[in-house]
């Protein structure tokens, strides 16, 4: 839904709170009418005491005066007037209470609707939108700007109506008392409105800058709080403090500027208002002294002028607040007008255990430095284990983000198919439900371990959680925690190590057993032994699923059915480990470097100094350590089913066979 104007969005937000605000406005009107009654009562009383002949009884008071025995009765029993004034004040207090009650109800309902709408909308915005917008700024819009809009609608809107009523009726009574005196008072109204309008745009511009800078300040605070580990680890406290102080200085500067503009606005308002009171006092006293109005009328007139004065000032305030609110509404409209992810009307839910095809895919991030993927084409067999190897920044994760539709492939830049279906025609929720991704830096919520593992489930079933944790080699670790699966992991999983977080994320994915599982360098933080153990356990749990492994380690990928080598966004080669060793110099070189590195590490380890035959991790070739290596194909435990349900050789076995060929 799009909001072409500010009002269209405000009306949408007001949907649940309109009746509360209507009741509040009604109460405010009653209060205003009662405010206008007292000057009349006091004016009449003064005149009847000083000179009963000049006292004119207001029509709505005539019944009361008659019951009190006429003007003479009022003069003898002045306490009756006191009772009347107290009565009016009591009714006013009741309606004032109603006003506060209804207004607060409306305001709280409004703010709840706004926050719910914003949060729901933000969660449905594309991932690309989130990468382009700073989290701190979004939070600032959802808190500070929401508050500005709420304050305006709850305080200023009812005040505006009250103002108009008070102004209209005050002027009406004032003109009835003395036309010229009333005209002298009214002449100041356009002056105040004009200078308010003059300040309107200036206040708006100053507030916009201050608000933007507040957003930047929030972003710095939010980044530093979430990245506190990095800040500490790199001793960046002082640098970050300076950065915050600098931004705080800029923000304070803009805020001080805004306050200056507002002070000028208020001071000039005060000046005009005092000037008007002075004119009324001088001219009114002259009229009273010359007998053209009575003393009671002068008192009533001055009281009405007070009532008029306040709303005029309030009108100026409302105009000033309007400028700020307009900016805040625009900032919220920026969020609410951003397009949420939407499926094509004919989007489908096809079987997902089919071949995945990248067909001439090219991609450049909107805010990036040119093409990240260039004409990439390859096929991942459904139900197979597929490895992707490539240097940092070669586009491996981008491929997976495109497959999960975190970023959409623009038209004409190739296609990604699952089976025969272009993923742009697959329902997004369905696609993501069936594509599980474990990231290198997984995000955990500040909940318990079991809740994190079962995050995609409606309720936590501990047996399933334990099974997934066992496969991810996490159960032993968890058993050592005092609270076991009920251990609270802190914000972003801060109480866990990198490897523990990665394994929690693996368990998180295993529990829902998606048909396509992506491990994006997700074992980088665990040691080689645990890596091998997890991969072994995963083989059983991932059978039937298409598994995509992304890694810099060839030892992680070498058992895959097929490996893609990506180089600077282009496909450099594809094949099994054996084929690549034989045919691809880049792959061979990486393999040799990694093997050499592993051997050097072993030489430097204390174990290495033992006699050869006693070495526990004696490595000649990674494949030679595997007991499955020499088994005939049909007996290999890692056998899996292809999408059509046929038993196939496990990726690992096939790769090892190819590795064997390569060695030959
Ligand atoms: N959201 C983004 N906006 C702009 N550019 C991006 C974004 N994400 C990644 N890039 C750029 O795209 C390129 C490929 O990034 P990608 O994360 O796909 O590489 P990778 O092969 O997975 O790297 P690594 O192995 O280091 O994780 C990099 O140059 C990176 O700077």
Q: What is the CATH T-level topology of the largest domain?
A: ABC transporter transmembrane region fold
CATH superfamily of the largest domain: ABC transporter type 1, transmembrane domain
Average pLDDT value?
79
The helix fraction, in percent, is 55-70%
Identify the overall geometry: elongated
Strand order of the largest sheet: 6-7-8-3-9-10
Sheet with most strands? 6 strands, mixed
Question: What is the class of the largest domain in the CATH system?
Answer: Mainly Alpha
GO cellular component, one term: plasma membrane
InterPro entries: AAA+_ATPase (IPR003593), ABC1_TM_dom (IPR011527), ABC1_TM_sf (IPR036640), ABC_transporter-like_ATP-bd (IPR003439), P-loop_NTPase (IPR027417), Type_1_exporter (IPR039421)
GO molecular function: ABC-type oligopeptide transporter activity; ATP binding; ATP hydrolysis activity
Keywords: ATP-binding, Cell membrane, Membrane, Nucleotide-binding, Transmembrane, Transmembrane helix, Transport
